Amino acid sequence: KSVASWPAPEIPRIGGTGIPVSLFDSSTGEVVPVQPDAHATLYVCGITPYDATHLGHAATYLAFDTLGRAWRDAGIEVSYSQNITDVDDPLLERATATGVDWEDLAQSQTDLFRSDMAALRVIPPDHYVRVQDVVDETAEAVGRMLEEGTAYRVPITADADPAPLDAGDGDVYFDVEAAQRLTSWRLGSVSRFDAEHMASAFVEFGGDPDRPGKRGRLDPLLWRAARAGEPSWPTPIGRGRPGWHVECSVIATGTLGTGITVQGGGRDLRFPHHEFSAAHATAITHETFAHHFAHAGLVAYDGEKMSKSLGNLVLVSKLTAEGHDPAAIRLAILSNHYRDDWSWSDELLDRAEERLARWRAHAATVAVDDAASAQADSPLVTRIRRAVANDLDTPTAVAVVDEWAAGDADPAVPGIVDALLGITL
Ligand SMILES: Nc1ncnc2c1ncn2[C@@H]1O[C@H](COS(=O)(=O)NC(=O)[C@@H](N)CS)[C@@H](O)[C@H]1O
Ligand SMILES: [Zn+2]
């Protein structure tokens, strides 16, 4: 069911041994060792394909690229999945507003995202899955939840706008209260949001707490029955399309199984999206969805979170089209800690370009020695590994490389900079 992702960058094998990663877990609020044994499974929510690829997107995908690189450096095999939210209200609204077909918009923006990720040397997912390609599996999963009592129907009033195509049995909602009785998931176990924060975030991300017929105010939509002017598919539970959270439950468990090592995304996804993706996955599989929930901070521009609705976007493709080296864009982003909120600025990119030039000039003066032995006992390599293994502390790793570039002749550093930071010197 996977579609093409993008070309994988070369990743050098470095001598010595990588260090197991410890990572902040949003569901516990602590930095904890991630225990993937020899094989790690990673699900990072993919883009809703419009306004791609702004620097906020890039920062979040680079955070989890760093995680995947650290796992590989420690000899751990990684299975990585990402979705493409090509069927969802925000995309349909943008397509309607700009007068383009939603499928064309999704396709062209996903292509742009692919080329931006390749330019930034982000390792591609092993499974790259569009929502439109898993509608049947999603309908089947929602059908099971209806049978088991963790989901229920809400009728569509005949005068609803837009008009229902065939009101059929109505829309389907997840029953938060019933799910906590029937499964091991508990509300707040992923996000640790309090009731007030949940209520506001639910509405911020398109929730409908006051809809007549709902049992619980926070019950999220699982399945939207067909409406005039909206894409819909015929399924055993009627004609319609999937809700947002359940698409990730189905794609993650369908490609990686249950008990995935890490579910990742930007911190705006903590609630409702990751809370309910985990809840739906648990209701569908009766198993733990993920062991670890990791969230990246939000990148702002001009003092506001970079986001589509605000239109304050800086696009990777605009910067590369202006001649900026993608490696410098990557370095500018990695010089911030992935969990911090921070602001993009032209100065940040200027500083990264200067830094990269310094690093490359110094690399030209050292006899780069990629022999495993040289890397194995290089103290600088070990310090860089330790920094990245400590909750992906790339700012500290960058500072160690600065130290090296100030005059250290260690020939092993360019190799680890490529393997862990994805930057070629
Ligand atoms: N300003 C930002 N800073 C950091 N990360 C961001 C920012 N805006 C969006 N993201 C992250 O980029 C990823 C893609 O965002 S998105 O295009 O809006 N798409 C979605 O959130 C859904 N398709 C996830 S299933 C998400 O992990 C989101 O949290
Ligand atoms: Zn998602």
Structure explained in plain terms:
The chain is of the alpha/beta class and about 425 residues long. It has 15 helices and 14 strands. It has a 5-stranded parallel beta sheet, sandwiched between helices. Helix 10 crosses helix 11 (about 345-365), helix 11 (about 345-365) packs across helix 14 (about 395-405) and helix 13 (about 380-390) runs antiparallel to helix 14 (about 395-405). The longest helix is centred in the N-terminal third of the chain and has 19 residues, at about 55-75. The mean pLDDT is about 95. 5'-O-(N-(L-cysteinyl)-sulfamoyl)adenosine binds near residues 45, 85, 248 and 305.
Using brief descriptors, characterize the structure shown.
425 residues, 4-stranded antiparallel β-sheet, 14% strand, binds 5'-O-(N-(L-cysteinyl)-sulfamoyl)adenosine, binds zinc ion
